[in-house]
Amino acid sequence: MDIYILDADALINLHRYFGKRMRNLRQAVARGQVKVPEGVYREICRSDDKLKTLVERWKQALPQWVVSIHSVPNLSKEWQRIDQRYGEQVRIGEQVYKGFWRSRSGQKAADAQVVAVAKVLNGTAVSDDKAIQMACMIEDVPCIGWAEFARRIGLVYFNLFEGEEVYDDHL
């Protein structure tokens, strides 16, 4: 079974585009297929909207979906290493990209947690953030965008016969 580690923007976009079908995502959470680092959970809970209420309910019902950095062996150490290595900048060959700390959340960003949790749990990071994608590439961690994740867990599929997207609430 694949394990997916979502960043905050992935959760926000999934809720924005598939809000009425979040039941499918919850089923994947219940199967242990989807997790978020504690930093992502806190970031979502700083808002005051329906997504906050949803993730709080999920944590009460399924506490294992929020990964505590200090509860998994080697995760805290790996998170600190990744945060320091890619916080300021991400260097690939001659190219230099903005690091995790250059995001709008600054050093409070949970970006390093997403990469570290995906690496330690042998999962796939779900993010469209360039710094996360580049760090995952260097760390040999699979990384996909939120749209591909939605397709993989069955939030949407393409009806080849009719040429339109089909939303399946029965998965």
Kindly name the structural category.
Answer: alpha/beta
Largest sheet: 5 strands, parallel
CATH class: Alpha Beta
Global mean pLDDT: 88
Determine Rg (CA atoms, Å). Answer: 16 Å
Total number of helical segments? 8
Structure description:
Strand 4 (89-92) and strand 5 (95-98) form a beta hairpin. The model has no long low-confidence stretch (mean pLDDT 88). Helix 5 crosses helix 6 and helix 6 (111-120) packs parallel to helix 7 (130-139). With 171 residues, the chain is an alpha/beta fold. The protein has a single domain (4-166), classed as Rossmann fold, CATH 3.40.50. The chain contains eight helices and nine strands. The strands form three sheets. It has a five-stranded parallel β-sheet.
Brief summary of the model shown:
This protein is an alpha/beta fold and 171 residues long. It is 46% helix and 16% strand. The chain has one domain (4-166): Rossmann fold (3-Layer(aba) Sandwich).
Topology of helices and strands:
Layout (H helix, E strand, L loop, with lengths): L3 E3 L1 H11 L3 H9 L3 E4 H8 L4 H12 L4 E2 L7 H12 L2 E4 L2 E4 L12 H10 L3 E3 L3 H10 L3 E2 L1 H7 L4 E3 L4 E3 L5
Parallel strand pairs: 1-2, 1-6, 2-3, 6-7
Antiparallel strand pairs: 4-5, 8-9
